[in-house]
Write a structure and sequence with these properties.
Elements: E1 3-7, E2 10-14, H1 16-34, E3 45-49, H2 54-65, E4 69-72, H3 79-89, E5 93-96, H4 101-110, E6 116-119, H5 125-128, H6 135-142, E7 154-159, E8 170-174, H7 175-183, E9 198-199, H8 207-219, E10 224-225, H9 237-246, E11 251-254, H10 256-268, H11 275-281, E12 284-287, H12 294-302, E13 306-313, E14 317-322, E15 333-335, E16 342-348, E17 353-358, E18 372-382, E19 388-394, E20 399-400, E21 406-407, H13 409-417, E22 422-428, E23 436-441, H14 443-449, H15 451-467, E24 480-482, H16 499-506, H17 527-538, H18 558-571, H19 579-585, H20 588-595, H21 606-621, E25 638-643, H22 648-658, E26 663-671, E27 676-677, H23 679-688, E28 701-706, H24 717-726, E29 729-732, H25 747-761, E30 769-775, H26 808-827, E31 831-836, E32 839-840, H27 853-864, E33 874-875, E34 878-879, H28 880-890, E35 899-903, E36 909-910
Parallel strand pairs: 3-4, 3-5, 5-6, 9-10, 9-11, 11-12, 12-13, 23-24, 25-26, 25-29, 26-28, 29-30, 30-31, 31-35, 32-34
Antiparallel strand pairs: 1-2, 7-8, 13-14, 14-15, 15-19, 16-17, 17-18, 18-19, 20-21, 22-23, 27-28, 33-36
Helix pairs in contact: 1-2, 7-8, 13-15, 17-18, 17-20, 21-26, 22-28, 25-26
Length: 912
């Protein structure tokens, strides 16, 4: 292995033999000069505070050779963190370079236990190499360099950045972990020795700096460039450019902070002195650490650079690299090493987000009794032949709202912080309905700009955040809080927001919808315009909506409806408006009429609901008047069409069907405006849910996107004809879930049921079995007293008997059930209706959808700090995979009469 060591303002080549001699000589120098009073029978801990330098590197290696444990401390720590780590590590000495001697002295006086302050003298490399070690020196040094328990011996200490805690965590690196992590091959075809030379300006106090700037190159015999000794300075962009002039190397390993500084330095100097040098270099950049803003990536690419990202953690080391890329798209896709022992645990299946979990068999800095949950979240893009994923965020950062929806606050904060008026910002919202932004101003810039103009510019920055955020994550005007001049956000030494601590400190500012924050639109000509502007802002729309626009056609959801209600309650204090009424009124005009008492919203009655249900049933039953009666059928094979195949129950059903011997093919349909083959997409969705399809049955699966409301479902003629000729069963699983929409809002789902029934009747000589997946919801408003607490497993009459649970969702299922029953009776079509009870997680992974009952209940309890009285309630949840297996078993058992099955758990359990 070669080093380059700066000497007399130049770089000299140092062979492996010489570098080993340097370590030995430095060890002897430490022993004789600095540590004369060391007890050879003990393993002291010596802390090191120094900027990057070749001296730092050799001091660290020499301490280890002497069986002394180095405790590597960041130069960016505050005094409290230094004292915390020195106490935990039981340091008996502090080795400091000249520029940190004052800090070392202050720490020595404030520590409760005695420590020696040791100044890091500059090593004289020339004189150190002038003489070989004699026998007595080797013998004297070997007294310290004996190891009694090599594998479990402590190699050195580093610490975390303190990203999620007030103080950094002390991290001990054992020799066996050091060996395991530095020996792991990070490429598919590893080469020893590594032929590419590398400049690694990582800070040596950092875990990655120790492992991969120092020990991994030693392990793999790689030529590395030692950082130069620069008194009182750290490595900068200008120094990197100087190194390009005088040293040859193939790879630069960057941390984002240095790369950002380098890009800004190159932008500020003449092109030929900066970017031109990097282009002429023509090497590879490897980028790790925190997420790098895309504008810096783009600047690198504009100047012809190629790079790859790598991902690592303190506990496990470097875990994977991206491919070498020269474009932004796909540049962050990390490929994990083949021999890395891990799995991905679902975190947000709908978004394809997984938490990286390291198996306990892997050597790392975690308790080996259990698998290690890293709290690092990835978006998985493919699974075969191995996992490829893009880093998303940390579990600690993701905000889970009481609605079950999630917000990643980091990109929102990054956008806010781009404003020169904002010093720092924090997005908070965990276990709340809405996100809140705390903003710490750059008061110097505010004073130069002026207060009013500054506020307007900050509001524009908030608008930019909202335009790039999901609707449920956006910031409402009264949810942005500016801190006073004497207030500051709490951050770690790395600059990361400590969210819980900030929430505890400033929660008094964040009471929901304070009256003094009422929206007051400028230049509103009337209350009608005011309401229109209010709704427009709540929906985050670029232009003010028309007074007759349907809110829900424009994207309103329960969250934005709640915002509108709260605002209107402040503008109209006497109103009885609620979210359910917003769902009924639907337009600005109707809202205005209701608020002015010129529009009466009639209360639902049994009679009014019955009238609406009957009218909807009649509308669709009339379509079947011209269809012929179906003939009895005998099935020798099964080809199943599953409509709405991307939902959780549908995926479990498809998985169960594919592994049955009586199934020839399963065809999935996913809603989509345009036709496309979705087979791979379906496989990936199922894999994300922990459903792996055996290779021997994978050929049975096909999946397409289709529009169930268009002729031939908008499928190509050949595909549609193939489905008509071969499908034997149609199962409708997909249905929109919303308990605030009205019956009429679900008409698109009801129309899909009707269209599928017509499809099954197209050839009366060869009809298809139709399986309709319903719920127990239709039985509640049609329940009769004589049922005596038991829901009968018989078709309902469709007659409304009470107003209990008369939701649009339940009524729409009731209407579709009635259409199924009448078509089955009048047209002899084989129909099965399955009423599926409350579903739980599956029997293997047991993970619930975060939008299901139990997870939402838990979040509501946390938010409201009230626990419901469930002592009189019982539960009978069905594991989702067991429900799917039942559907697969019963779907083809059919006589020519409508059949109804209730899939519930016969064993009830009490809340404990």
């Amino acid at each position: 292995m070669d080093f380059y060591i700066p000497a007399s303002e130049r770089f000299i080549d140092l062979l492996k033999y010489n570098s080993d001699n340097y370590v030995a000589k430095t060890s002897l120098y430490l022993q004789n000069t600095l540590f004369a009073n060391l007890n050879e029978n003990e393993r002291p801990v010596i802390a090191i505070i120094s900027n990057n330098s070749s001296d730092y590197m050799f001091y660290g290696l020499s301490l280890m050779l002497l069986n002394i444990v180095p405790l590597h401390l960041s130069t960016r720590l505050n005094e409290a963190s230094y004292l915390h780590l020195l106490k935990l590590g039981k340091a008996s000495g502090i080795l400091v370079s000249d520029e940190f001697s004052d800090i070392g002295l202050a720490l020595k006086t404030k520590l409760e236990h005695k420590v020696e302050l040791i100044e890091m003298e500059n090593l004289d490399y020339v004189s150190m190499l002038s003489n070989e070690l004699n026998d007595s020196e080797i013998e004297n040094m070997s007294k310290f360099a004996t190891f009694t328990n090599q594998g479990n011996e402590l190699a050195y200490y580093v610490h975390s950045t303190g990203s999620t805690s007030l103080y950094p965590k002390l991290i001990s690196i054992a020799n066996k972990v050091l060996f395991s992590q530095t020996s792991r091959a990070l490429t598919d075809t590893p080469v020893y020795p590594i032929p590419e030379s590398r400049l690694s300006p990582l800070p040596l106090y950092h875990t990655g700096g120790q492992l991969f700037n120092l020990h991994m190159p030693i392990r793999w015999c790689q030529h590395i460039i030692a950082p130069p000794n620069i008194k009182g300075e750290i490595l900068s962009g200008s120094i990197i450019l100087e190194l390009l002039n005088c040293v040859k190397f193939d790879i630069i390993k960057w941390l984002p902070k240095l790369l950002i500084e380098f890009v800004e330095h190159c932008n500020a100097i003449p092109y030929e002195l900066g970017w031109a040098k990097l282009i002429n270099w023509g090497g590879l950049s490897e980028i790790g650490g925190a997420a790098l803003p895309s504008e810096y990536i783009s600047k690198f690419l504009e100047n012809g650079q190629k790079f790859r990202f790598y991902f690592g953690s303190s506990e496990v080391g470097i875990l994977g690299y991206s491919q070498v890329v020269s474009k932004v798209e796909g540049c962050r896709f990390i490929r994990f090493p083949n021999d890395f022992k891990f799995f991905m645990s679902p975190y947000d299946k709908d978004q394809g987000i997984y938490e990286l979990v390291v198996k306990k068999e892997e050597k790392g800095l975690f308790c080996s009794e259990d698998d290690y949950k890293t709290k690092d979240l990835f978006k998985v893009h493919s699974w075969e032949p191995r996992a490829v994923a893009e880093y998303h965020s940390r579990c600690d950062d993701v905000l889970v709202h009481v609605t079950g929806e999630k917000t990643n606050p980091l990109p929102m904060e990054n956008t806010l912080n781009k404003s020169p008026l904002i010093q720092c910002s924090a997005i908070l919202g965990k276990n709340h309905t809405l996100n809140r932004a705390l903003i710490q101003l750059n008061w110097r810039e505010v004073e130069l700009t002026g207060w009013d103009k500054s506020i307007n510019l900050i509001n524009e920055q908030v608008d930019l955040v909202n335009k790039s955020s999901p609707s449920h994550s956006r910031l409402m005007p009264n949810c942005v809080h500016i801190l006073d001049k004497g207030q500051e956000l709490l951050v770690t030494i790395k600059g990361n927001i400590i969210r819980q601590a900030n929430y505890n400190l400033y929660k008094h500012m964040m009471d929901d919808f304070k009256a003094d924050n009422v929206l007051t639109p400028a230049n509103t000509a009337s209350k009608l315009d005011l309401i229109a502007e209010l709704v427009t802002k709540a929906l985050n729309l670029p232009q003010q909506i028309d007074t007759n626009n349907d809110f829900f056609a424009l994207g309103m959801d329960s969250l934005s409806a709640l915002v509108v209600v709260k605002k209107l309650q402040q503008l109209f204090p006497l109103t009885t408006l609620n979210v359910s009424l917003v769902y009924k009124l639907k337009t600005v005009l109707n809202l205005m009429k209701y608020l002015e008492d010129t529009l009466e919203v009639l209360e639902d009655t049994v009679e009014s609901i019955q009238s609406r249900v009957d009218a909807m049933i009649l509308k669709y039953i009339q379509r079947f008047s011209n269809y012929n009666t179906a003939k009895a059928i005998e099935l020798n094979r099964r080809v199943v069409l599953v409509v709405g195949s991307n939902g959780s129950l549908a995926c479990n059903l498809i998985h169960s069907l594919l592994h049955r011997s009586d199934i020839d093919k399963v065809i999935g349909i996913i809603r989509g405006a345009e036709f496309s083959d979705k087979s791979n997409h379906q496989v990936n969705i199922m894999r994300e849910k922990g459903l792996f399809i055996h290779q021997r049955v994978l050929h049975k699966l096909q999946c397409f996107s289709a529009d169930m409301h268009l002729s031939s479902f908008n499928l190509p003629a050949s595909v549609y004809q193939d489905i008509c000729d071969n499908v034997t069963e149609v199962t409708q699983v997909g249905w929109r879930m919303n308990f605030l929409n009205s019956l009429e809002d679900f008409e698109d789902c009801i129309e899909t049921t009707s269209n599928l029934l017509e499809f099954c009747l197209q050839n009366p000589k060869n009809p298809k079995i139709f399986n309709f997946i319903s719920t127990i919801a239709p039985t509640v408003p049609t329940y009769k007293i004589e049922y005596n607490g038991i829901i009968p497993e018989t078709p309902t009459s469709g007659k409304i008997t009470n107003l209990n649970s008369c939701t649009g969702y339940g009524l729409s299922k009731l209407v579709s059930e009635q259409i199924c029953y009448q078509v089955a009776k009048t047209k002899n079509l084989p129909v099965n209706v399955f009423r599926v009870g409350e579903l739980s997680g599956d029997q293997s992974l047991g993970q619930w959808n975060v939008k299901e009952f139990l997870p939402l209940l838990i979040r509501a309890i946390i938010k409201l700090k009230v626990y419901p009285n469930l002592s009189s309630k019982s539960i009978s949840w069905v594991p989702i995979d067991l429900a799917a297996k039942s559907l697969a078993d019963l779907g083809h058992f059919k006589i020519q009469n409508p059949e109804l099955y209730t899939i519930v758990n016969p064993q009830k359990s009490e809340w404990k």
